[in-house]
């Protein structure tokens, strides 16, 4: 089967700095692929290039076989994005957030309404359907962001630090949802600086440091080869601590 | 850019607008009435006539123009800036098939729409007060879309350059307020030094005021130049909000 994402020589200059330095990787259908590294390693930049928010400075990036620079709308139609920042629409209710978001994908209300209720059940937010966003807890906002990223039934789900800033209980709730999606065969791409998250969810992980990929392997292999947990693996490979 | 996707952005703004203004829509009628009462009747008691018109009849069509200007400019400066920065609404929208060009087109269309809505409210108010001589005033409505588009373009160009929300004070104080005062709404500007008229020629509000006043009096031919000016300048500037906002948002 063709890979979902391929990147060759991906480089991005950002404010005069080399944020991503000629990296190569491939993401296969149905896997959960993680980018690991501290803040500033270039993970979010890679995500933004994959979901066509910004173009690469050089290199070839294809999603579903289409170049990101040429077919952004076509690619984005098949992607779900759960961003790092909470960017829910504060002028709309919980349910309206899903309906209006679905409309950007050209899904009319007649079709999006049943989808939205299903997703609210998935995110355990049915009772909050008519609440304002400002009245949701942090965990609820993250679950709604996850629900929103699924309105278009994406073939690739991109999660940028999906549990950063969440309490342990909410974090486990998000992980559980992601494991459900994985079991259904959704291709997941996530960034994280929590080792536990990578160990739990990722089939393969790319260790990133200063814009470069140090290594790509399964968390289990990495731990077997370098000993200890991923935390120590990161320290051994880069000479740096992960939690900065 | 695809019109359908730009329309999705427009629909989002329309939904938010109808939600927020359902309860306070009547307020939109209060402000023009205050202007007409204070200036038209208050000041009008001293100024009997301008160009053969009772003072309140003279200023009434100008309020159409100013009200529509404020609507487009506030929407596409403050409104756009809040959506772009604090609310991160743009980031959310740009993760969908909507592109940056669709998004900017949606903002412009929405700014123009608000111009039409607010200008039309004034047309209704001044017509009810019997301050309009001709039904030709209704022909102002499509013109309001064009002038609203132009003012939205100028606003977005400004948004693309400002470092923070406080910078809008410059826009309001140095651009909108002078236009409001010196575009011939309250007095004919040919009474001022000729330089003022020359500057006014380069501002959209001056031409829109001319059009509103002429149409309210049932005169069309006198303002064809003003109409051409609005169409031409809005077409000339159209490319810049796209180019500059793209540069601002996409790093």
What report would you give on this structure?
The complex is a heterodimer of chains A (244) and B (251). Chain A is an alpha/beta fold and 244 residues long. Chain A folds into two domains: 1-78 and 155-167 and 186-244, 3-Layer(aba) Sandwich (Rossmann fold); 82-153, no CATH class. Chain A has nine helices and ten strands. In chain A, the strands form two sheets. In chain A, strands 6-7-8-3-9-10 form a six-stranded mixed β-sheet, with helices on both faces. In chain A, strands 2-1-4-5 form a four-stranded antiparallel β-sheet. In chain A, helix 3 (94-104) crosses helix 4, helix 5 runs parallel beside helix 6 (168-183) and helix 8 crosses helix 9. Chain A is globular, with a radius of gyration of 18 Å. In chain A, 44% of the residues are buried. Chain B is mainly α. Chain B has one domain (3-16, 26-249). Chain B contains eleven helices and two strands. Chain B is globular. The model of chain B has no long low-confidence stretch (mean pLDDT 94). The A-B interface holds A 14-15, 51, 53-55, 72-74, 76-77, 79, 81, 83, 85-92, 96, 100-101, 103-106, 152 and B 2, 4-5, 8, 11-12, 15-16, 19-20, 87-89, 91-99, 250-251.
Topology:
The complex is a heterodimer of chains A (244) and B (251).
Chain A: E1 5-14, E2 17-27, E3 32-36, H1 43-50, E4 58-63, E5 66-67, H2 72-76, E6 79-82, H3 94-104, H4 109-122, H5 138-148, E7 156-160, H6 168-183, E8 187-192, H7 195-201, E9 204-209, E10 212-217, H8 219-226, H9 230-238
Helix pairs in contact in A: 3-4, 5-6, 8-9
Chain B: H1 3-21, H2 27-42, E1 49-50, E2 53-54, H3 55-84, H4 89-94, H5 100-128, H6 140-159, H7 168-182, H8 194-201, H9 204-216, H10 224-237, H11 239-249
Classification by helices and strands of chain A: alpha/beta
- Report helical residue fraction of chain A: 25-40%
Helix content of chain B: over 70%
CATH superfamily of the largest domain in chain A: P-loop containing nucleotide triphosphate hydrolases
What distance separates the N and C termini of chain A?
38 Å
Largest interface summary: A-B, 30 and 24 residues
Query: What is the overall shape of chain B?
Result: globular
Write down the domain tally of chain B.
1
User: Which CATH class of the largest domain in chain A is shown?
Assistant: Alpha Beta
Strand order of the largest sheet of chain B: 1-2
Spatial sequence of strands, sheet with the most strands of chain A: 6-7-8-3-9-10
Low-confidence stretches of chain B: none
């Amino acid at each position: 089967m063709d890979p979902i994402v391929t990147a060759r020589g991906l480089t991005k200059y950002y404010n005069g700095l080399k944020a991503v330095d000629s990296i190569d990787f491939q993401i296969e259908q149905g896997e959960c692929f993680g980018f690991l590294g501290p803040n500033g390693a270039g993970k979010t930049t890679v995500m933004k290039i994959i979901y066509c928010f910004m173009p690469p400075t050089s290199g070839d990036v294809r999603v579903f076989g289409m170049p990101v620079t040429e077919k952004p709308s076509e690619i984005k139609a098949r992607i779900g994005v759960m961003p790092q920042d909470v960017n829910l629409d504060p002028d709309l209710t919980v349910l309206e957030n899903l309906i209006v978001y679905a409309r950007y994908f050209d899904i009319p209300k007649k079709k999006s309404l049943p989808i939205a209720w299903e997703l609210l059940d998935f995110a355990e937010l049915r009772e909050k359907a008519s609440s304002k966003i400002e009245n949701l807890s942090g965990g609820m906002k993250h679950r709604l962001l996850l629900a929103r990223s699924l309105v278009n039934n994406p073939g690739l789900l991109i999660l940028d630090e999906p549990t950063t800033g969440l309490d342990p209980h909410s974090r486990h709730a998000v992980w559980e949802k992601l494991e459900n999606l994985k079991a259904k065969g959704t291709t997941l791409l996530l960034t994280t600086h929590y080792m536990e998250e990578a160990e739990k969810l990722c089939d393969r992980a790319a260790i990133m440091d200063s814009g470069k990929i140090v290594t790509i392997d399964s968390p289990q292999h990495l731990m077997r080869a370098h000993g200890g947990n991923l935390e120590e693996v990161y320290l051994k490979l880069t000479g740096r601590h992960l939690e900065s | 850019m695809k019109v359908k996707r730009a329309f999705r952005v427009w629909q989002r703004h329309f939904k938010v607008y109808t939600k927020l203004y359902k309860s306070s829509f009547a307020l939109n009628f209060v402000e023009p009435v205050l202007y007409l009462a204070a200036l038209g009747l208050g000041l009008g008691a001293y100024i009997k006539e301008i160009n053969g018109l009772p003072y309140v009849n003279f200023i009434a069509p100008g309020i159409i123009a100013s009200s529509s200007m404020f609507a487009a400019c506030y929407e596409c400066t403050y409104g756009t800036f809040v959506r772009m920065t604090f609310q991160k609404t743009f980031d959310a929208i740009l993760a969908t098939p909507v592109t940056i060009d669709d998004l900017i087109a949606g903002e412009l269309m929405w700014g123009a729409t608000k111009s039409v809505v607010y200008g039309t409210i004034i047309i209704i108010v001044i017509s009810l007060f019997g301050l309009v001589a001709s039904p030709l005033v209704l022909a102002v409505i499509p013109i309001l879309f064009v002038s609203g588009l132009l003012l939205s373009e100028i606003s977005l160009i400004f948004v693309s350059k400002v470092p923070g929300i406080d910078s809008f004070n410059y826009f309001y104080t140095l651009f909108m307020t002078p236009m409001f005062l010196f575009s011939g709404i309250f007095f004919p500007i040919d009474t001022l030094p000729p330089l003022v008229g020359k500057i006014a020629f380069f501002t959209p509000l001056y031409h829109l005021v001319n059009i509103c006043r002429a149409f309210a009096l049932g005169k069309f031919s006198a303002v064809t130049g003003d109409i051409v000016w609005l169409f031409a300048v809005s077409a000339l500037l159209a490319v810049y909000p796209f180019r500059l906002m793209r540069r601002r948002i996409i790093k």
